Amino acid sequence: xxxxxxxxxxxxxxxxxxxIDARTMEIHHTKHHQxxxxxxxxxxxxxxxxxxxxxxxxxxxxxxxxxxxxxGAVNFHxxxxxxxxxxxxxxxxxxxxxxxxxxxxxxNSGFSSFDGFKEKFxxxxxxxxxxxxxxxAYNPQSKKVEFTTMPNQTSPRTKGLIPLLxxxxxxxxxxxxxxxxxxDYVNAWWNVINWDEVDKRLSKTKA
Length: 207
Ligand code: MN3
Prior knowledge:
It is built from 9 helices and 3 strands. It is mostly helical. A hairpin with a 4-residue loop joins strand 1 and strand 2 (144-151).
């Protein structure tokens, strides 16, 4: 058995209905996230023990230490494993609304306002070409939060950013319910955000 196992879902597959449907959640978790988990374990098997034992978050920020022939697989499957683990937990049933606490202050300071942030996140995530993710991330250099998009499964950690809130816009995340209507999925997703979890991630960056 590999080092990584598929993380348990923090709620039932139908818990995010009607915004994200149960069948999509189940396939997304048991097939797609499982595939990244297996791919990560397979990639790790080709690494030296010091890299195998490194925390995944550290490994993703130090991809230059990974031999070139395995780097792409670690970037893709390691990013996919980590991104999805974050994604399940940055959603919850009856979520959404406006954040409070430190994350609200950080968003106001990084963007014009919460509404300005929401507009940018929505517009730029819908506009991602092909598969990828929209992220709210903390930048340890500027000590501010910022928005970024990342292609495929590449983690914001590879750019030295700490992911706080991510939205998966691969078609597998919405196609069964929304087909080609990515914008409808992105707009619905704002109703299931777990802001307490996002706030917790921000406070950990300062620990
Ligand atoms: Mn996905």
